[in-house]
Design a protein that fits this description.
It contains ten helices and ten strands. The chain is an alpha/beta fold. Helix 4 crosses helix 5, helix 5 packs across helix 6 and helix 6 runs parallel beside helix 7. The chain starts with 5 loop residues before the first strand and ends in a 13-residue tail after the last helix.
Length: 295
């Protein structure tokens, strides 16, 4: 259950990418709050700046990216002003990250056990190697993977299992907020549903907050039914290029959504004729129109 207490407060966050002769504004002064125990959705099309926001919140922005303005406050502390020691305590212990591509996030030449133990030992050296391994076993049990597979490599797991392992690493230090950058990308719909349901179960059991980043608002909203989920939607601003700006979200059943759906149903379908498909294919070398293809 989410509370009314604000955990993370973002105000006027601005991120630029600096080139040799130009500056591209990727995030243009966005505001939002994430409460304790809340699942907050950040939705938008590809390239609109969602991951840029996530990296800025975790202080992972690197050149040519530059956080040029705004505030990110955790319990009133400005994250953008943390020194090195405070930043080390902030990452993974208070805010952890599930990166977009699980296969790229995991090291292919190091066993999964070492990757989990490394995170735990770095932040909790007093726990020791045996204690860190015991926690790694508990994490595997938590995400539903047999602990006997702990010493295997990332290529020996399926895509859904690799995503669960990334979630386990993010949970290793029991953070208060987990940033999940499209955790179901490149997975089939059945595995997507399983991953989202597991995220909901873990969230309800452990009480952490979630910043869920996705290109689509449909699937997570069915499984994470929080009142403010997807309360702010984002899309490319036509007057400012790809800068991420806030727009009011459309909810199911609202007049805007109903009228939009009605106009889509009333609009006539426009299909290419067979002759049009043949002309289009003829312009592409070594291709031909398939006669069995229908609209």
């Amino acid at each position: 259950m989410s509370s009314d207490r604000v955990l993370l407060e973002v105000r006027n966050l601005t991120v630029d990418y600096v080139g040799d002769n130009s500056i591209a504004r990727a995030v243009d002064g966005i505001d939002f709050d994430i409460r304790e125990g809340e699942a907050f959705g950040l939705a938008g099309e590809s390239g609109c700046g969602k991951s840029t926001v996530a990296f800025a919140l975790a202080r992972l922005t690197r050149l040519p990216g530059l956080v040029s303005g705004g505030e990110v406050k955790l319990d009133g502390e400005d994250v953008l002003k943390f020194d090195k020691a405070r930043l080390k305590a902030y990452r993974w212990r208070e805010v952890s990250f599930v990166f977009q591509s699980a296969m790229n996030a995991l090291n292919p030449v190091i066993p999964i056990s070492e990757q989990i133990i490394d995170v735990i030992e770095t932040h909790e050296p007093n726990l020791g190697k045996e204690g860190a391994r015991k926690r790694a076993v508990e994490l595997f049990e938590l995400i539903g993977i047999p602990p006997a597979r702990l010493d295997e490599y990332s290529h020996q797991f399926s895509g859904g299992m690799r995503q669960r392992i990334c979630i386990a690493i993010a949970l290793a230090l029991k953070p208060r907020l987990i940033i999940m950058d499209e955790p179901t990308t490149a997975l089939d719909v059945v595995v997507q549903r399983d991953i989202i349901e597991q995220i909901v179960e873990l969230k309800n059991r452990l009480g952490f907050s979630v910043l869920f980043i996705s290109r689509a608002r449909s699937s997570p909203t069915r499984s994470i039914p929080t009142p403010r989920h997807w309360a702010t939607a984002f899309r490319r601003s036509p007057d400012r290029g790809c800068g991420l700006r806030a727009f009011p979200a459309r909810r199911r059943g609202s007049p805007t959504c109903r009228s939009a759906a009605a106009s889509r149903r009333a609009a006539p379908m426009r299909c290419r004729s067979a002759a049009s498909r043949r002309r289009r294919c003829a312009s592409i070398p070594n291709t031909r129109a398939r006669p069995h293809v229908t609209c």
